[in-house]
Design a protein that fits this description.
Blueprint (H helix, E strand, L loop, with lengths): L2 E4 H14 L9 H14 L4 E4 L4 H29 L21
Antiparallel strand pairs: 1-2
The protein binds zinc ion (ZN).
Zinc ion binds next to helix 2.
Length: about 100
């Protein structure tokens, strides 16, 4: 089966958790996570490809190398914006990031 697909979307989902883990101020709720992904994708150029099964992996890896830095910085920017202005509903609870004790005295 053939499909037209924006691979940027897959790559952002693949990397979002890695970036979010480094953002100490970002709320951990699902809504904020989706907001980060949507915003990051708005910063990035879409990359549509026709995908056949089997061919996907090579394409993704190719694009990943090409756009890795752009993707990481788009997600970081998005996370900073979302953490400064979370849009989760009132009543939806803010979920605090895990506190790291490593840098405590
Ligand atoms: Zn939230």
């Amino acid at each position: 089966m053939m499909q037209v697909k924006n691979f940027m979307e897959d790559l952002v989902w693949e990397k979002v958790d890695e970036v979010i883990d480094c953002q100490k101020n970002l709320c951990r709720c699902e809504h904020c996570r989706y907001d980060v992904v949507a915003l990051a994708l708005n910063f990035l150029p879409p990359r549509y490809v026709v995908s056949h099964q089997g061919e996907m992996f090579t394409k993704v890896k190719e694009l990943e190398q090409q756009f890795n830095i752009d993707i990481l910085s788009a997600i970081t920017n998005a996370a900073i914006i979302v953490s400064g202005k979370p849009r989760h509903e009132q009543g939806e609870k803010r979920i605090e990031p895990h506190q790291s004790t490593e840098d405590a005295y």
